[in-house]
Amino acid sequence: TWKWVVGPMFLYLCERLVRFWRSQQKVIITKVVIHPFKTIELQMMKKGFKMEVGQYIFVKCPAVSKLEWHPFTLTSAPEEDYFSIHVRIVGDWTEGLFNACGCDKQEFQEAWKLPKIAVDGPFGTASEDVFSYETVMLVGAGIGVTPFASVLKSVWYKYCHDATNLKLKKIYFYWLCRDTHAFEWFADLLQSLEAQMQERNNAEFLSYNIYLTGWDETQATHFVVHHEEEKDVITGLKQKTLYGRPNWENEFKTIAGKHPGSRIGVFLCGPEGLADTLNKQSISNSEADPRGVHFIFNKENF
């Protein structure tokens, strides 16, 4: 038995040593941004750090816990000179990080007062394959939109420099969110993309649909009153926010009709129930003919 056990144990030990060495490399927090609804953005730098879109890292803050490592999706693009994560304050560890970064104080925090951070990664995910398709569907649920922040930022940078070499020609983006507060930190990115595509006369490149799945009677009345305004009352975007949940069967059939004979990548970061629905729709709307339309499903769960 020991002959079969020694090999895997040796490889495991090597992997742990490499991860320990990477986690000891110095990380500098360059900026802490407080977003609405208790979400903070940490912008960091680390020597030799290289990333691809949609990847994630493990983060440890010794000031909060000397042993706990937590995974966070990178929200920066590879083209930026820093890497960033968005952290929503929903538990003891994230609350401790929030306080350690001085976000609970009103006065400006000096950089040397910021806590030390250990970072391990980045690690790959399915979202890295986005640029391998000409047409993609990106579906995010709640905070699961974070990997697509990296994707859309990277698209924006590529368009600014040289859009002709970009294989990706069409993005269908869906974001399902329970409350309005979560829209605020992400809306600025969509507004920048919207303006960029219009300047280059390619507004059709990005089609996005934002769905609000929970609201109360007061909010509903406010939405109705302002529905006729040019920009959406929640996001400030030209595309109006939709209410309820999407009819996925109709969405898949519509996209299949617009892109016959294509391989369409479907990327999800969301709960398991939504993954099952999208997987079934991807299979049922793919044609048996190899020359027909095919939906290729990729998922990340949280």
Short description:
The protein has 302 residues and is of the alpha/beta class. Helix content is 32%, strand content 26%.
Any overview of this molecule?
By secondary structure, this protein is of the alpha/beta class. The protein folds into two domains: 101 residues, Translation factors (Elongation Factor Tu (Ef-tu), domain 3), CATH 2.40.30; 172 residues, Rossmann fold (3-Layer(aba) Sandwich), CATH 3.40.50. The protein is built from seven helices and twelve strands. The radius of gyration is 21 Å and the shape is globular.
Largest sheet composition: 6 strands, parallel
How many helices in DSSP terms? Answer: 7
Overall CATH class of the largest domain? Alpha Beta
How many structural domains does the protein architecture include?
Answer: 2
Average per-residue pLDDT, rounded, comes to: 79
**Poorly predicted sequence stretches spanning 5 or more consecutive residues:** none
Helix content range: 25-40%
**CATH domain fold name of the largest domain:** Rossmann fold
Question: Distance between termini?
Answer: 37 Å
Please identify, by name, the CATH architecture of the largest domain.
3-Layer(aba) Sandwich
Strand order of the largest sheet: 10-9-8-7-11-12
Order of helices and strands: HEEEEEHEEHEHEHEHEHE
Class computed from helices, strands and strand pairing: alpha/beta
Q: Which terms summarize this structure?
A:
302 residues; alpha/beta; Elongation Factor Tu (Ef-tu), domain 3; Rossmann fold; 2 domains; six-stranded parallel beta sheet
